[in-house]
Amino acid sequence: MTTASSPSDHAAAAPAAPGAAVPSAAPAPGTTTSSDAPVAPAAPVLLLVPGIIGPSALGAGEEPIVLADATAPQLRVTDLGVTRGEGAFETIGVFDGRIMALAPHLERLQRSATMMELPELDLDVLAQAVRRAVDEHADVPELLVRIFVSSGPEGGAPGIVRPTAWIHAKAAPDYSGERAGIRVVALDRGIPSTAPQTSPWLLAGAKTMSYAINMAMIREAERRDAQDALFVSSDGYALEGPTSTLLVRRGDTFTTTPASAGVLPGTSLGSVVTGLRAGGLDCTEELLTPAEVAASDGAWLLSSGRLAAPITHLDGIALPVDMELSRRFCDLIAGRADA
Ligand code: PLP
User: What is the pTM of this model?
Assistant: First the structure.
């Protein structure tokens, strides 16, 4: 197993014990020892990516990707990702070793980074790092690989951004409950669906490291006896979930929120739309009100790790649930079905 080496100034801060051996990944969850005693879940994998903006920013002899100790402190306390939430991230689903929608995730990361005026990222290095993280992790049926790129430490030279980047891979939690159905409440986002055009500084549609509002929404949903929430624009349209894309069925037509309304363009949605279109079904983009969603023939919240979660109730109103179609959506997102 590789050991962590000292990162450079612009990479994540020094490991607690430079040169300390990285602990071996534990056996996959559900596996047993020779005595058949249950074992601990597989250990997460951490990679630091000092090569995030290409070789020119690397120190002499510095590797672009460095395996690090996922249990040790690694980040400077003055990193702008921590102090200001300035940065972008992605969560990629890996199913039985298949890395899903890698290129769309990397393109979206670059788009979010550009919206925050970060420099051009080296997407080839990132793709390599994602593959390495999967290789380093113990085999598990469902793995979440998160890529983080922050604006780097505070106090750099004026006008020069030296991003910090790291990749964290961990076994996915058990999402079977949510995949069977979720109760959802509509919550006001407080900005209109025209915000991307009128107020680009709100960064609507960027996947930024400032997810405190999204997490607060989920807590509010739980207080209201639901498992998830649906953002509603101040002009009254259903937008997206805090970590997911809305898909609505009306007859044989499937509708999602236009990206121009300030939602994150979903990679899972892309996989589902490709599959639906291959089956001759119509997919459109249209702004719908929560009342129209509640009166539809079915609705889902889609995302890369949880996959397709059918909405059983929106604000207490029951929606039809087609479990066979839901499973098909999950298979499309997880690469278990051909489009
Ligand atoms: N919308 C938001 C706000 C999200 O955070 C996410 C994913 O985390 C999604 C939509 C779904 O995106 P994807 O399908 O690429 O996972």
Answer: 0.89
